[in-house]
Amino acid sequence: MISGTYNNRFEIKYVVETQRLPEIEAGLSDFLEPDPNSAGGQGYFVHSIYFDSPDHRLYTDKIEGELVRIKPRIRCYRSAPGAPPRELFLELKGRYDRVVAKRRTPIDEALATYMLETPAPELNGSATMSSALGEFSYLCQRYRLSPSVTVFYHRTPFHGAFYPNMRMTFDRAVQCSLSTRLDSPADAFHYALPPNRAIVELKYNEKVSGLLLRRLRSLGLHQRTVSKYAISLEACYRRVYRGRVPV
Hints:
By secondary structure, the chain is of the alpha+beta class. Helices cover 24% and strands 37% of the residues. The protein has one domain (6-15, 34-188, 203-241): Hypothetical Protein Pfu-838710-001 (Beta Barrel). It has six helices and eleven strands. The two termini are 35 Å apart.
């Protein structure tokens, strides 16, 4: 996986019928190439554990449309459900109006486990500690962050054939769980989005081709506001507590 530390970009999201993904991929074939991380076009599984405060402050920021907000998470990639993580990262995904900024730093499984099992983990500062870890530690202390929900899905990534700063992903089988462990069992998960729905994301820096946007519209894709974190937390509370997310 790409392990860059900082990236400013824009995102456009679409919710589509899962069965339409091959049609959409074929319709965009002159714009897209398989991502080199995609294991021969087969994709991979994304396992993300999000952090939030006891009163779900970060979820509320998203729902209320705050222009400046952040989502801390631990993310790993797997070749199959239950397979060992390929890589582990701490990520801070921030939004500043329409601009998305993501910082990430590699972490090992021992550190990830400590962060998941320790209430409001405090990381020892050092000259070698990344800025992402430093900010995560600050956020944990300020907002008493703890693991909130796990999101798991299959991703097929592409990059632009002619636009090097453009990326597109097809995310299907979006599942969630209140079990926030790296080894959560498969039966702890349920669907956050109906299995016949998938999320298509277009990610780009600065500008995007008008021709590509017209092609997407001609394929019947219409922009949607959707957050995997928000829909997953809501789905878990509906299923487990038969209610809404407490804020």
